[in-house]
Fold this protein.
Amino acid sequence: MRLTKIIACIFTVISGNSTLKAQNPVIQTHYTPDPAPMVYKDKVYVYTGDDIPGYDFYYMTKWRVFSSSDMVNWTDHGSPISLESFSWARDRAWAAQCIERNGKFYWYICAQTVQNNMALGVAVADSPIGPFKDALGKPLVTTGSWSNIDPTVFIDNDGQAYLYWGNGSLYYVKLNEDMISWTGDIVEVPQSAESFGGVRQKRSPDSKENPQVKDVYVEGPWFYKRAGKYYQMFAGMSKGGESLSYAMSDSPTGPWKYQGKIMSEQPTNSFTNHGGIIDFKGNSYLFYHTGLLPGGGSYGRATSIEAFKYNPDGTIPLISMTKDGVGAVGLPDAYKRIEAETIAWAEKCKTTQSDKGNIFVSEIRTGGHIKVRSVNFGLTSPKTFTASLASGLDGGVLDVHIDSLKGAKIASINVPRTGGWQSWKTFSQKVNENITGVHDLYFVFKGQNITAGRELFNFDYWQFIH
Ligand code: FUB
């Protein structure tokens, strides 16, 4: 590829206008509801729940975190907290949000208490991916109400932090600077047609009530500030399923003015929707969930992302769900170690965390693959491909293709039995083609006939070498 062509290609990808699109949902190895994005340094972290499809309710037990520096390849950081992390929690690891303050990370969660209601808690860490620890050993907010769900947190320019939350009713408290205590009263935000589109009957989360009312605040608030305006996005309801709506204010505590829908009811295959909004590398993004991942539904929801542009007056346009998702705003470097769990799209494989905390691609089966988007090979071709792999049985084959599943095969590794599913060995293979510029990579998994249906090998990381 000529130099000018390579530079044009890199520019197209970095400017986010790539025609090479990711697919929604952005994570396929787990069900990832209630996405809460956080920008920290040069990465986006997304904190999610963990749905277990097959049940008929949100019986969730843990939370997950993923990160990306390009918006299309997401690295799995496992599950740093679960119900077990909070001695007071017994069930329903529901929506959560993490925020950084003075180098510490505060992950606000909600869960069902041993007293059988919902409460808010907070875990703290020195890094966005943990390890996190329950900061208090008890809930941060507990009023004996089922409404205590879906915390959202924001620190204003004057240093005052606000925690909003609530199902049916919307509440807030002013957090103290330590982020793990609060002062003053819990304030219930008045709801009206002017502020949130309507007023809704209160309900318990167990209720099957499905009111046919115009748009109203239901749950899932997402509180933030942009260009001097305060925003309260929320899961609203008008036709039975949840949509995303929003209100704006000139003050962090209202009064709020209803602005309409951000994402109307669409064929999501999920009763709920739940979103978060960020700006990253000059673009604005809406994170939300759907039940559209194969095997999913209302209790198997997965994170999706759309890019959007604010209107000149700060209002938000109506955003449609897409399968294509967003363009890449960065390029993974082919010559740096990349974790195998950094994935744009995955089929017939999962990710697992070892007892020592190592995360790797597991449950790899014949016919499966991993796609990594927009990998930058630069101006000179690599000579070697290396990968860290392990297999407790007969292994299989790892083929590396570029540009499409059936594109040129640039390397292939025969993975033997390595002595155990955690007995990692580094394999190196000559690269068959001259590759420069930016390419999507496809790691394609194959087994022998005899091993076709079972796990082939585990995959920890990969790298190209000049
Ligand atoms: O994920 C469980 C609950 O469903 C969340 O807390 C709500 O926002 C809804 O998405």
